[in-house]
């Protein structure tokens, strides 16, 4: 579906983004392997999280919903049931990678597959460490899905230096370690999001950080916990960008997750000169939340390098739009991971920027954008990638003539109410 986004005069009011997608996936998965009933409250998060829920149901887990609470009836670390057919992860990389860690230590064989985007995503990054633990797991010849996992509850402990900073890979190995009751020692080139560690600790696991190494002690069982899901910072980032770019804008976004491993975007835009206040910041069960108040700001260019990338990975396309309106040349490097997301986000972002009249350059591991430019408008190929669809919708709001976004419906993967929020805010 194509959608034409007209320029907005200003963005004003309050939005409620969906619940944090990363935390939702983990709450469901950890709930499924805990003992007892896990209670989850928070705003639903879209199709990706629905994929995780359906996969768990297909693996014999009961999940109910009433009065704003989701209850997961845990099966324990080795209690999932062999599914009748293959497990369909849809478009969700987090589902396939984290679930593979759990399935590596079950008693049965499973085949995991998903849509055409998921089939292109690299799975060797989990196949290698899980195989080192003794899992019997194989990918398609291309290195992607379908994945076949012959479960083995007697996995070995592992000490592993991760070649890429990836919370999905880290979480897959930790979950395999938990289910097999063995120790795991990991190092990452740069710290990635740490929701899995926080949530496993809530359930009684011992995970420590020592000299940059993460260590999970053998864990005999997980106890069920209550998880309150904050609103998703990654979804909030779209409207933060709109408010920053459009004259006269001000916007309030309440109860947003502000975990330090996730807010690289906030730090970067504040370095660019963004007028942002954080209000009512608090910590609950290891996760920090707060309200974000943002006003239109004049921005200056920024350079983003590898050490910042994991904390801003999903928000980097927005830096392309912000860079076009900032003073100076904005450059992103050390971000080759963007090429293996739901689409090749470097190539599609740069082509999309050019389609709306913005001068940008593509590099193997990033991109650069010349500042002080008008976003003129045009039609953009978003490759069915939810984050690119929403990025170019925001570009439309800040454009001269409007932007037509192809495959706009992909926004439902992480933000089903995105276009209704956008219509509401831009007409205020
Ligand atoms: C995620 C980790 C990141 C991120 C993805 C969600 C997670 O992926 O891009 O949207 O929930 O663990 P990588 O682990 O591939 O960096």
Overview of the structural elements:
The chain has about 425 residues and is α/β, with parallel strands linked by helices. It folds into two domains: about 5-20 and about 230-425, Alpha-beta prism (UDP-n-acetylglucosamine1-carboxyvinyl-transferase, Chain), CATH 3.65.10; about 20-220, Alpha-beta prism (UDP-n-acetylglucosamine1-carboxyvinyl-transferase, Chain), CATH 3.65.10. The chain has helices spanning about 20-35, 45-60, 95-105, 115-120, 125-130, 165-180, 195-200, 235-245, 265-270, 315-325, 345-355, 385-395, 420-425, and strands spanning about 5, 10-15, 35-40, 60-65, 70-75, 85-90, 110-115, 135-140, 145-150, 160, 185, 205-210, 215, 225-230, 250-255, 275-285, 285-295, 305, 330, 360-365, 365-370, 380, 405. Strands 2-15-17-16 form a four-stranded mixed sheet. Helix 1 runs parallel beside helix 2, helix 1 (about 20-35) runs parallel beside helix 7 and helix 5 runs parallel beside helix 6. The protein is globular. The mean pLDDT is about 95. The structure holds shikimate-3-phosphate.
- CA-based shape: globular
Distance between the termini: 25 Å
Tally of separate domains: 2
CATH class of the largest domain: Alpha Beta
The CATH H-level homologous superfamily of the largest domain: Enolpyruvate transferase domain
Number of strands: 23
**Spans of 5+ residues with little confidence (pLDDT < 50)?**
none
Which strand order spans the largest sheet, edge to edge or round the barrel?
2-15-17-16
Oligomer: single chain
Q: Main sheet? A: 4 strands, mixed
